DNA sequence: CATCTGACTGACTCACCAGTCAGAAGGTCT
DNA sequence: AGACCTTCTGACTGGTGAGTCAGTCAGATG
């Protein structure tokens, strides 16, 4: 069975597990019913954003959708209820505000207003502001990972996968730039407040691990040189990416999105490609 | 005349211009009189920290001390008076607090306490807190540059100079780590508040320019490959440095000071050395 | 139908902190 | 001696924003 057939089967299986029609499922996922229908029929490909949303709504890993092992719905991770929905809404509002105004300039009242609710409602879900903000950082990064996985899982060739990763990481204005803004904040907070480090380092390890796996895969596929240490190359690749992103984000002279792309693709060509 | 002879002559010249004894000069610079005396006699080398302090106290550029052209004391930059001394004291306290606690967690009262004065005294020198903090960021970076110049100006071989630069940039606990902390804060602030970008970008351009010059010098000295574009190599070198520093600062798994050094020296060896 | 519970509101309190202001202390100039 | 300036203090004000709390209300439960 081809990869996309597996995917369609898995989405159908997930739909069967949750109650309600295909139309209701589409609504919950936030995708037009006609698009869902065409995608299930194989006449249209799911976008990575949709895959990420489907996995999230269904409470499964994107990996499972793409053919991975494991139970479709782990017993303790049932589909999100109403309560969790509101919680998520608050977290989304919070991380967007952090990205836009900065960690320390976000007020509980701002978050509440962005959700169309009252400050007290935010405190109903999170005891303190710190809790909202720290959770929001995690939430944003988690979502970004999910999307990344959804998109990269569809590409088989390791070289192309890495090139795609570079493209996905370019801080174009909009969502990706906001996510980079979160990273910058995360870094300065984690450098100062050690209690944020475990969370930060877990994420960072995952991001670097993802690069290590792509490089190793590329070596097995013989598209990357055999004489580079994947760990070492990933360390350099991630450092270069972060450093370049900072320069784009701060508008450093001579650094543009195109230049950043060139920098990273150049690294891949010079250091990795066989 | 050898480089260190020029240096000694210039320091003497500077001392002659400011009134007071050699002992008084030593006190103002914050160096033991005996050390100054031995350094002037050529029996001891000035440390880069001392050079930076001497230049600052005398109101001259470190370049001039090292034999550069220009007047020793530009008319509008006469040696710092009492007023400026107190101002500097506030700025030093401010940037250290920012490095330690973070930009947004510094209170005017904290700065005042660190200087042994009252909050109102801080407002006497700076109209608003914003002014103190922004000035403090600039001040810290400016001082770091001065020290860097003082140290690197003594090394003639471009390869060794770059290696020394790497060593100086490693965020060992203490002053250098604090300076990196300032950079992290500067980045996240500059990414969010465009009014900080001109200052940030000026500094960043200077830092990258310094690297460009070292690489170009190395090409003229034939210690670096001729086929690399200095601008391009500097862009990559700075991005790599910043990215690696972030990982050290946040305690990212597998990234240590030694690893950072290896990363950067590896870059120099692989990409620059002839 | 009565009761209970989860989700929430509006009005409040309280701490904190930037910035102000009227002078004091000490020095300099005339 | 006295006018005047610089530097600084201590006590104050006003605004802001986190967190609390009593109460509301829709819907579930028995």
UniProtKB/TrEMBL annotation, chains A, B:
InterPro entries: BetI_C (IPR039538), Cro/C1-type_HTH (IPR001387), Homeodomain-like_sf (IPR009057), HTH-type_TetR-like_transc_reg (IPR050109), HTH_TetR (IPR001647), Lambda_DNA-bd_dom_sf (IPR010982), Tet_transcr_reg_TetR-rel_C_sf (IPR036271). The lineage of its organism: Bacteria, Bacillati, Actinomycetota, Actinomycetes, Pseudonocardiales. GO terms for molecular function: DNA-binding transcription factor activity; transcription cis-regulatory region binding. SUPFAM superfamilies: Homeodomain-like (SSF46689), lambda repressor-like DNA-binding domains (SSF47413), Tetracyclin repressor-like, C-terminal domain (SSF48498). Keywords: DNA-binding, Repressor, Transcription, Transcription regulation. The keyword DNA-binding applies. It comes from the Bacteria. This is TetR family transcriptional regulator. It holds the Pfam family TetR_N. The keyword Transcription regulation applies. Residues 107-126 bind DNA. Residues 84-144 form the HTH tetR-type domain. Residues 11-65 form the HTH cro/C1-type domain.
